[in-house]
Design brief:
Chain lengths: 305, 245
């Protein structure tokens, strides 16, 4: 595995405010790396230090072997960025934006297919100011890809999108990675992280408080699970309570809920099989990343958005 | 090279798509010209050393164009672009910020120049415009004036946090000068006290300088010094206070 980003004890202050405090992590080529945390946690500051827009006060940052501060133009040729809260002139047309940005780079991809892919083809002659929030967002993502970058930085690309548009965006982000690009994405949505990210850094008050694969973080918290299923024959809860991994059983009609941990599912199904019962509509509930977040920070992540 | 061309093309298109800017920079001076022509005509007048009212007002209205672009157009668009983080988005690309600045200066210079040419062409056809100087002098005086006013424009953009603030600062600086510089109303009809104030206003020196080279009566050294000083201060302080974000 090849490291494309190395952050070593990064620190950034704004006056008295500690925006980023002693943050270290590495990103491997080809992964989707998530950064989550509440508002003001320091996510944007961290990402902007990686692309050379913010000068770190402490620590070192290397991206593609370059120093983002000193080699900013060389680095900018090889990365793509979608920044939080940027705008363009109201009366610039979509095709003009793409032409303009194409002229900034040594190497570019044709932008017509990019527009197609991001569903903006019929908007190519529209003014930027007349695009919907989601369309602007997609235009900025297309701009981030115009130089065929090795790493793409996406800062809250799905904030403000409807659920359908978010899901479409996820597929496109996966498509970016499937082309071999590395993706660093900042988000507030835990479902997005669980869906997309290979690894995630959780940042709170400028500090890195967790860093791992989403599933590993969830497992670390607990391997508690709930299995819900229906049966076609009546069942005695005592028959299930004797399974070692089971902690509690509750039955309402034909619907049965079993709580436990470890290899719960396998042992449960084996026992039912011995009893000559075939369970159907099996649902497994595990703690979510949101639960991990709450247990780490003591707060919910979706506050004040 | 391509990025310079693309950037300049976009800046130019954006200017021509902004009706209010287009009106005040290009159409408004033309309207004043036509109005003056209709009211005062362009007969030779001893006040202007044998030139007519229009002959003296073409340089005056050119000063209005330079002042509008320098003190309002440049500060407002630049501060807006910073406020909306357009400049920031550019900074995340390999494009050096000097490309943006160079294109912005070039496009504004060309627009000011076209505005002046439009006044000249209309005045030639409608009012038999007279010209007693050398074109090269007019171009040089015009360039010096744009440098001075553009530099102060970027300085205002550097100090003003938002587009609205830039607009207010620019208008407060520009509007009094518009009336007290001789650009719209001849100075010699003004009371002595007003003329005194007027002699300290930078736009007055643009008008004096441009009129002098227009009439062929030579370079006004006082005005040249004033505008050079303004350029030096504008560029020095401007580059110190100007921030891209
Ligand atoms: N230019 C700045 N000047 C002063 N303080 C700043 C500046 N930029 C950010 N901050 C502060 O630094 C802290 C971290 O901000 P940052 O934008 O990195 O947070 P974030 O995690 O991206 O938040 P959000 O989820 O709201 O985007 C915040 O307290 C913020 O107020
Ligand atoms: Mg942010």
């Amino acid at each position: 595995m090849e490291k494309v980003i190395e952050v070593n004890r990064l620190g950034k202050l704004y006056g008295d405010i500690v925006a980023v405090d002693d943050v270290s992590f590495e990103v491997q080529r080809g992964e989707i790396f998530g950064i989550v945390g509440p508002n003001g946690a320091g996510k944007t500051t961290t990402v902007e230090s990686l692309i050379g827009l913010k000068r770190p006060d402490k620590g070192e940052v290397q991206v593609l072997g370059l120093d983002p501060q000193n080699d900013r133009p060389a680095l900018a040729q090889r990365i793509g960025t979608q920044l939080q809260q940027t705008q363009l002139a109201e009366r610039i047309k979509v095709w003009e934006v793409l032409n303009l940005f194409s002229s900034f780079y040594d190497k570019t991809v044709p932008w017509e297919p990019l527009l197609d892919r991001w569903g903006l083809s019929e908007k190519r002659h529209a003014f930027f100011g007349k695009l919907s929030g989601g369309q602007k967002q997609r235009l900025f993502i297309a701009l981030a890809l115009i130089n065929d970058p090795e790493i793409v930085f996406l800062d809250e690309i799905t904030t403000g999108l409807d659920p359908q548009a978010r899901r479409e965006t996820w597929e496109l982000v996966q498509a970016i990675r499937d082309e071999g690009k590395t993706v660093v994405m900042v988000t507030h949505y835990m479902d997005e992280v669980e869906m997309l990210c290979d690894r995630v850094a959780i940042i709170d008050h400028g500090r890195l408080i967790a860093l791992d694969a989403p599933a590993a973080l969830v497992n670390q918290l607990s391997d508690e699970q709930r299995i819900i299923f229906t049966v076609d024959l009546p069942i005695n809860p005592a028959d299930l309570q004797t399974i070692e991994q089971v902690r509690a059983v509750s039955i309402s009609g034909s619907k049965i809920e079993v709580q436990g941990a470890g290899d719960l599912l396998v042992n449960l199904v084996l026992r039912l099989h011995e009893m000559g019962i075939t369970p159907s509509n099996i649902e497994i509930h595990r703690p979510s990343l949101e639960d991990v977040f709450i247990s780490l920070t003591g707060r919910s992540n979706v506050e004040n958005k | 090279m391509n990025k310079y061309i693309q950037m300049s093309l976009i800046q130019a298109k954006l200017f021509f798509r902004e009706p209010i800017a287009l009106f005040f920079t290009i159409a408004f001076p033309v309207l004043l010209l036509v109005m003056y022509g209709a009211i005062f005509g362009n007969d030779p007048n001893p006040n202007f050393g044998g030139f007519g009212y229009i002959d003296s007002q073409v340089p005056g209205l050119t000063a209005i164009i330079v002042g509008t672009i320098g003190l309002i157009g440049i500060p407002v668009t630049t501060a807006n672009n910073r406020e909306q983080k357009v400049l920031r988005r550019f900074m995340a690309t390999p494009m050096p910020s000097t490309v943006y600045l160079a294109a912005d200066i070039l496009v504004n210079f060309v627009i000011a120049f076209l505005g002046m040419m439009l006044l000249i062409v209309i005045a030639i056809f409608a009012f038999d415009l007279r010209f007693g100087g050398r074109w090269i002098d007019v171009l040089a005086a015009f360039s010096l004036s744009t440098i001075a006013f553009f530099a102060v424009g970027y300085l205002i953009a550097g100090v003003a946090q938002t587009g609205r603030v830039a607009q207010v600062v620019g208008q407060v600086a520009f509007l009094p000068m518009m009336f007290l510089s001789g650009a719209t109303l001849p100075l010699n009809i003004m009371p002595e006290g007003v003329q005194q104030i007027s002699s300290w206003l930078p736009l007055t020196h643009v008008v004096k300088l441009l009129q002098a080279v227009w009439f062929g009566s030579g370079w006004e050294t006082g005005s040249v010094a004033m505008l050079l000083g303004m350029s030096v201060v504008g560029i020095t302080v401007g580059s110190l206070v100007f921030q891209w974000e």
